[in-house]
Design goal:
The protein has 619 residues and is an alpha/beta fold. The protein has 13 helices and 30 strands. It has an eight-stranded parallel beta barrel with strand order 10-11-14-18-19-20-21-22. A six-stranded antiparallel beta sheet has the order 23-24-25-30-27-28. Helix 3 (159-173) packs parallel to helix 4 (209-221), helix 6 runs parallel beside helix 8 and helix 12 (436-452) runs parallel beside helix 13. The chain is elongated. The protein starts with 5 loop residues before the first helix and ends with a strand. The relative contact order is 0.08.
């Protein structure tokens, strides 16, 4: 393996490469019959570039790179650099100033510093072939994601420790996937990983790249998928990062109306630049291919799609048609989706997109290509509804029902993420009004409603145990709460609910259209009750009813379409969950052939206070 090939650099500069990391960055090679490391970096505006590191005592004159034709890439072969040596590029701009830059394509990074690290990856002994072979589609499968911040689930754990403690916990709790908040190299811990400097380097806070592979591999051995946050919208302004990489705007747009993201203190990528497209598409492929990650959740997609995002009038630059849509970002996302879905196995591509931008998911032709979109409207409406005193809910019943006006317009994922339990928004438990018992009862009701509602699921760590305080990135979750009965009951409820979800095809097989959903109770705003049927591919029905008031009803009557028997199979009010237990052992109920509402039969069931109950329907 020698010099960079013209074909590799052609695809990179054309913006069509999905494997640029195999050429650029630092790689162990043979050069003139001897082992060496090849360094290659894109810096087209630089006057000079050299590699500085441990082996040359950071001497800017020792290892000067050579430009590769007119490609904008600089290259050098160094025989004395070794595995785990630290290094940077000394980049001289046109003004003669030299800035030390981390390698944008580095495979590893310094733990407590800003340097890149040489990482000679050996073949990893993967044992997850069976798991990967089973991934073909997720639309008719259960997807219940446990979102995790690796540094604060249990503070101080490494990737390899998480591979056992976190993975075993997720499996025991009945989750199907773990989603890790960004693990790319980021210098500022309070950014939670969302201000990246090294897109190809796992953060060294928790271990090496091989340690992260071990975590993914063991998750797959336990039947748990691993997703990761991906941050293609913006990057940090840190001097050692991508900002003004060769003395001029390179990864960012030269016009501050396109590049400055003042509300986050970051810079936006210039998606119109072909080499930036190659960088980002290759980065998405890198994590999925080299680390066996099962999917990416793209952060801040709305920021990418709208040129006026977070800007006042006159502070943004319109596209070539005078509109506010970022056409280059649209093209990038579509290209990324294509590259993701060309990989072996089925890899998920998920959008955090909070607007009504059309055709986000591949439910549509000519879409952005995402597999799922977070349903932010559902989340906001439901949390506003739950946070109000139950007395007032009857005047806001539409917040429960409006979501079905658009529930099948995209492939949706229902999410209660980390963003909902920070910055004064309160924890999920503390969002619930009422006394101590009512808070827990309503949280169980909320989760049971979410599991029953069409759409795949995601919840953030700590929500399953009823954490009282907001999430703190620099401390462990309050696991000590599990010394108290109410939190033990909350955890038990979440575990059983998750397992019931996985065991019940009606709750996940037909998430994408009206075949899997039918309203049973939609207009009972006076009693704040709603209910619906979920249906599996074979037509089997599950009736899900929800009482959003503290008033129990021992004979709640609703119309049903056909005669039959209804058997209660799950109740959030069971005593083992901390409920009253007064409504648990209810016998099967027969329908009565008396018309009600639009139906020919009626049914009387018991609804517990702040309770959710599921019934199997045998028509």
């Amino acid at each position: 393996m020698g010099q960079l090939s013209e074909l590799e650099l052609y695809y990179f500069n054309e913006g069509t490469s999905s494997s640029a990391y195999e050429s650029l960055g630092c790689h162990r090679v043979e050069w003139n019959g001897r082992p060496a490391h090849r360094f290659a970096v894109w810096a087209p505006n630089a006057m000079r570039v050299s590699v500085v590191g441990d082996w040359n005592y950071w001497n800017q004159s020792a290892d000067i790179m050579t430009p590769v034709g007119s490609t904008g890439v600089w290259e050098i072969f160094i025989g004395i650099a070794n595995h785990t040596n630290l290094y940077k590029y000394a980049v001289m701009g046109r003004d003669g100033n030299v800035v030390l830059k981390a390698d944008p394509y580095a495979a590893a990074c310094e733990k407590n510093g800003t340097a890149s690290m040489i990482w000679d990856a050996e073949p990893f002994p993967w044992t997850d072939e069976k798991y990967l072979a089973g991934n073909h589609t997720y639309h008719n499968k259960p997807v219940n994601i446990y979102e995790v911040h690796a540094g604060s689930w249990k503070k101080g754990l490494t990737y390899r420790q998480l591979a056992h403690e976190l993975v075993d916990y997720a499996a025991d709790m009945g989750y199907t996937h773990i989603e890790l908040m960004p693990l790319m190299c980021h210098p500022y811990t309070p950014s939670w990983g969302y201000q990246v400097t090294g897109y190809f380097a796992p953060t060294a806070r928790y271990g090496s790249p091989d340690d992260l592979k071990y975590l993914v591999n063991r998750a797959h051995e336990k039947g748990i998928g691993v997703l990761m946050d991906w941050v293609p919208a913006h990057f940090t302004r840190d001097a050692h990062g991508l900002a003004r990489f060769d003395g001029l705007p390179l990864y960012e747009h030269p016009d501050p109306r396109r590049s400055d993201m003042r509300q986050w203190g970051t810079l936006l990528f210039d998606y119109g630049r072909p080499q930036v497209r190659s960088y980002l598409v290759s980065n998405a492929v890198y994590w999925l291919k080299e680390f066996h990650i099962d999917g990416l959740r793209a952060d801040a997609v709305s920021c990418m799609l709208y040129l006026d995002y977070g800007r006042n009038e006159g502070e943004w630059l319109a596209n070539r048609y005078g509109g506010k849509e970022n056409l280059d970002a649209v093209e990038l996302l579509q290209r990324t989706a294509e590259a993701v879905h060309e990989l072996p196995g089925y890899k998920l591509f998920i959008a955090e997109e909070s607007t009504a931008f059309p055709k986000v998911t591949n439910k549509h032709e000519d879409s952005l290509g995402f597999d799922y979109k977070w349903n932010m409207g559902w989340m906001n409406d439901l949390l506003k509804y739950m946070q109000m005193d139950s007395y007032y809910r009857k005047w806001h019943h539409d917040k429960l029902t409006f979501q079905m006006m658009y529930a099948f317009s995209e492939y949706y994922m229902l999410s209660f993420s980390h963003d909902e339990v920070v910055h004064g928004k309160l924890s999920m438990l503390n969002k619930m009004p009422g006394d101590y018992w009512q808070k827990f009862a309503q949280l169980r009701l909320l989760y049971a409603y979410m599991i029953a509602h069409p759409g795949k699921k995601l919840t953030f760590m700590g929500m399953e145990i009823g954490q009282f305080i907001e999430w703190r990135f620099d401390e462990s979750l309050d696991w000590l709460l599990l010394e108290y009965p109410k939190h033990v009951e909350m955890q038990r409820f979440t575990r059983e609910l998750n397992r019931y979800y996985q065991d019940t095809p009606a709750l996940y097989q037909c998430d994408d259209d009206w075949f899997g959903f039918e309203w049973a109770v939609v207009n009972d705003s006076d009693r704040s009750v709603c209910g619906f049927y979920r249906r599996d591919e074979a037509g089997n029905k599950l009736l899900c009813l929800f009482n959003f008031t503290p008033v129990p009803d021992r004979a709640y009557t609703l119309g049903v379409p056909k005669a039959g028997t209804y058997t209660q199979v799950f109740s959030s009010d069971a005593p083992r969950f901390g409920g009253t237990g007064d409504f648990e052992n209810t016998p099967p109920v027969e329908t009565i052939p008396v018309p009600l509402d639009r139906f020919l039969h009626r049914l009387s069931v018991q609804l517990p206070p702040f309770g959710a109950v599921y019934f199997v329907c045998e028509e």
